[in-house]
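User: Is it possible to get a 3D structure for a protein together with its bound compound? The compound here is 3-isopropylmalic acid. I've pasted both below.
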Amino acid sequence: GLATVAQLNKVTIGLIPADGIGREVIPAARQVLESLPKTESSPRFEFIHLDAGFEHFQKHGVALPEETLTRLRGECQGALFGAVSSPSHKVAGYSSPIVALRKHLDLYANVRPVASVAGTDQKQLDMLIIRENTECLYIKQERIETDAKGQKVAYADRKISEYASRRAGQMAFNMALMRDKLRSQVPASERLWQDKPKVTIVHKSNVLSVTDGLWRETVRSVKETNSKYAGVDMDEQLVDSMVYRMFREPEAFDVVVAPNLYGDIISDGAAALVGSLGLVPSANVGDHFVVGEPVHGSAPDIAGQQKANPIAAIRSAGLLLEHMGYASEAARIYQAVDGVLREGQIKTPDLGGKSTTQDVTDAICKRL
Amino acid sequence: GLATVAQLNKVTIGLIPADGIGREVIPAARQVLESLPKTESSPRFEFIHLDAGFEHFQKHGVALPEETLTRLRGECQGALFGAVSSPSHKVAGYSSPIVALRKHLDLYANVRPVASVAGTDQKQLDMLIIRENTECLYIKQERIETDAKGQKVAYADRKISEYASRRAGQMAFNMALMRDKLRSQVPASERLWQDKPKVTIVHKSNVLSVTDGLWRETVRSVKETNSKYAGVDMDEQLVDSMVYRMFREPEAFDVVVAPNLYGDIISDGAAALVGSLGLVPSANVGDHFVVGEPVHGSAPDIAGQQKANPIAAIRSAGLLLEHMGYASEAARIYQAVDGVLREGQIKTPDLGGKSTTQDVTDAICKRL
Ligand SMILES: CC(C)[C@H](C(=O)O)[C@@H](O)C(=O)O
Ligand SMILES: CC(C)[C@H](C(=O)O)[C@@H](O)C(=O)O
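Assistant: Yes, that's possible. Here is the predicted structure of the complex:
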């Protein structure tokens, strides 16, 4: 009966608004999840509010409370993270909670789709960035010394492992196949992409021949050792020319896979191409857990004013559902968002509009 | 007498075309230097050809021959470097000659002006990127291990020193003052920049609190400890949001100072804004030596076809002169290039034209 199905589909989502506009966009995403039409197979959501962030650190001395981690692990199937403020000066003991969350929950791939909506942007693009999410300079092994002349010298370790590179590479090739399947369902006339699926490997092995050399070889071997990826093209770009080409010919890219820091930079760059960081979602994906997270920051300058664009967070809720296995609910969210964007009437100031966070959220909910 | 003056102004320039289109654009830059009108105070050039590059490595087993370094040090006051090809797979013993050159000659600041020419680009910008040029991940201290499960794990060291950060910071503030002085000579109506000079510090100290923390504090202290920079504004950007903002509001930036790798990425991104990498020059500047170098690569796909845009190399020759103290000769080159770009008739394929490398070079020489 329905009760049993509902039972089966109970999904508990941890909500971690964190700082600044995170407190406005996470409630917006929650409202959208709650407004999804209820069918026999759709999830029944429960939400729990969890703390984290720089402001939490300032009040309580800890940026990612142990309780948040424990409850995520024990009670939740997924989470939505808002945004975190960056201290404007060195703060002893502070460390970014989102970086810690990725590490503690082994969320090894950061999946960042950046696509234009027909009729809203100049450049047409439909790119999926897979950012390795656990290592590179993000391992935060740093040290500082004083040299013979009394001057400071600091070092950071950049780690690239075969293990993490392979997982990121597999995610990239799997997503390329998945996207290809979805595209084949779209009428040819409406397709931006006509070609074969492709994975572009980003690296800087002309300088970092050992670390980025390992990254490149490992990702390449994912395709070379698995015939199921035979139909997926593979190419590569040095990170500097990636940024250049992305701006000149964004339509040349399908799936882009990059080590952590390059992925961070590239995804902000791609966001500029679709008109606003307020549009770009991400999912931090592991084998057992997913955390949706808008790519934008906490935007302290507009926080608390209902000016924040909720779309990145709402799309992140869609990605969360998609990676939890609720593809049709996710598609419903994407379509509702695209509908509002295409209509172009209700938009927040980042897109040149005057609507509030709530207006945009309501408009999306109406279309679900 | 003239002979003595000519003697005094003798300038020996090492020409290092290296790979690919480097062999077309360096001769173009040489032709421009030779075509400069000769006045009593203008330099008398001598050129010596020097080897380096990936192709040289493939033939002779060395990418930067000892002789090239010795002759640069012993006979030259400056040099022009073309471009270097990146191996498409791991090549034992190969290491980038331009990175080695920067290190051996202690060329600690890479100065990269990116400006639009009125009437040629959509976005108006006039930015000077100062890229720290000796450390960060470019120290190439890498190692690889095998873990307990037989999988490879690689590490690279990222070095940030107070010493190098201060030198880069000083260059940034000095250039901000210099640009302000030059701007004040331009009629107000023609000025893109009306505001105070500004230095933007790029970092990622929300993750790399020790290394980028040291970078940020050191560059800040350059201004804070020297009253001559009181009139220069200072702000900062995280590297990811720098790339985003640069595309959204490039007019918000004057001088931008960045650690080595971020500077590499940002300058390619900025090049996309002015329409082509083929337009963007750089100078690798030390206290005793300057190497001009176009920001573009060796472009093997168009090499040898007279399709390469020589402007980046020609402007790099201008930068070389500027940093060697020949400001008026440099200005003459910049104006000739701007004239050709503004006219918009003679342009290489990267700018949508059909002219050859030689056509563009001749057109510039005619305007000198
Ligand atoms: C806040 C910061 C640590 C984070 C990152 O660099 O990963 C952010 O920029 C992001 O992209 O999620
Ligand atoms: C060729 C490469 C080593 C070099 C760099 O990364 O510095 C190039 O990209 C540049 O910008 O001069």
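Residues A 84, 96, 98-99, 264, 295; B 206-207, 240 surround 3-isopropylmalic acid (ligand 1) (CB under 6 Å). Chain A has a mean pLDDT of 93.
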